[in-house]
UniProtKB/TrEMBL annotation:
NCBIfam families: pro_imino_pep_1
Every AB hydrolase-1 domain range: 42-148
Subcellular location: Cytoplasm
InterPro entries, sorted: AB_hydrolase_1 (IPR000073), AB_hydrolase_fold (IPR029058), Peptidase_S33 (IPR002410), Pro_iminopeptidase (IPR005944)
An example Gene Ontology molecular-function term: aminopeptidase activity
Gene name linked to the record: pip1
One Pfam family here: Abhydrolase_1
GO biological process: proteolysis
Organism of derivation: Rhizobium favelukesii
Protein name according to UniProt: Proline iminopeptidase
Main subcellular location: cytoplasm
Length: 281
């Protein structure tokens, strides 16, 4: 039997949007699309710091779902831009709960990919009673091995030319700790140095997020405003290991025993090399 490749649902505009004050000076941008009152769902974007795009609305059948999408703290249309204050995994988990309460639903389907899968797992393990189903893809559990593979040695062997551009802003004596070397520049007082580092960090991910070049995917990573927020926030989360114990998400997976879930794989040409891509039948 031949399986027909399904495409995204047609483009759709949100039926509601706004900003929600979540404390500590942060206001997060949210929007809802689909059918009001239909099955509730929330989409968690990647990064951290990547924001969501209009194409993410198209992951859900608009006739069946009432989906909420939001830009996590400091990125996209959320304010203040690129701010690291009170911006941790657990602040984001609390924000999801505030959004659920705002939406007026008891539980909802949680969908996340890449960093979004990390956040989805953290949220679901913290609030399993609020999750009707859990869908994750491109799973990233934020272990030291995963971070080292992407920012120290591993993916560097797959894209040696791009790796040379990534390490270029960092002196050789600091390259044994690339994440920390970048952190010093991204959080320093010199805005020009920070922006140079941000663009190098962001372009590295944008150009290696797929196995084959895709300008439509990587182009935004070169934009200064996007790169500054993306690099600062992502690096901030990663040097702090997501404010989680090593292996915490797998350790606490037993908390999801009553939550129906699916792990989706991306096609090989789209798979991010540093992240585990699995499928469960």
């Amino acid at each position: 039997m031949t399986e027909v490749l399904r495409t995204l649902y047609p483009e759709i505009e949100p039926y509601a949007s706004g900003h929600l004050g979540v404390g500590d000076g942060h206001k997060i941008y949210w929007e809802r699309s689909g059918t009001p009152g239909a099955k509730p769902a929330i989409f968690l974007h990647g990064g951290p710091g990547g924001g969501f795009s209009p194409s993410h609305r198209r992951l859900f059948d608009p006739a069946l779902y009432d989906v909420l999408l939001f830009d996590q703290r400091g990125c996209g249309k959320s304010t203040p831009h690129a701010d690291l204050n009170a911006n941790t995994t657990w602040h984001l988990v609390a924000d999801i709960e505030r959004l659920r309460e705002m939406a007026g639903v008891e539980k909802w389907q949680v969908f996340g990919g890449s960093w979004g899968s990390t956040l989805a797992l953290a949220y679901a393990e913290k609030h399993p009673e609020r999750v009707s189903e859990l869908i994750v893809r491109g799973i990233y559990t934020l272990t030291k091995a995963e971070l080292d593979w992407y920012y120290q040695f591993g993916v560097s062997e797959m894209f040696p030319d791009k790796w040379e551009r990534f390490i270029a802003p960092i002196p050789s004596e600091e390259r044994h700790e690339m994440m920390h070397a970048y952190n010093r520049r991204l959080t320093g007082a010199d805005r020009a140095v920070a922006l140079e580092a941000a663009k190098a960090w962001s372009i590295w991910e944008g150009e290696t997020i797929t196995l084959l070049p895709e300008k439509s995917t990587s182009g935004k990573f070169e934009e200064a405003d996007f790169a500054y927020a993306f690099a600062r926030i992502e690096n901030h989360f990663f040097v702090n290991a997501g404010w989680m114990d090593e292996g915490q998400l797998l350790r606490d997976a037993y908390k999801l025993k009553d939550v129906p879930g699916v792990i989706r794989a991306r096609p090989l040409r789209h798979a991010l090399p540093g992240k585990v891509c699995l499928a469960i039948a």
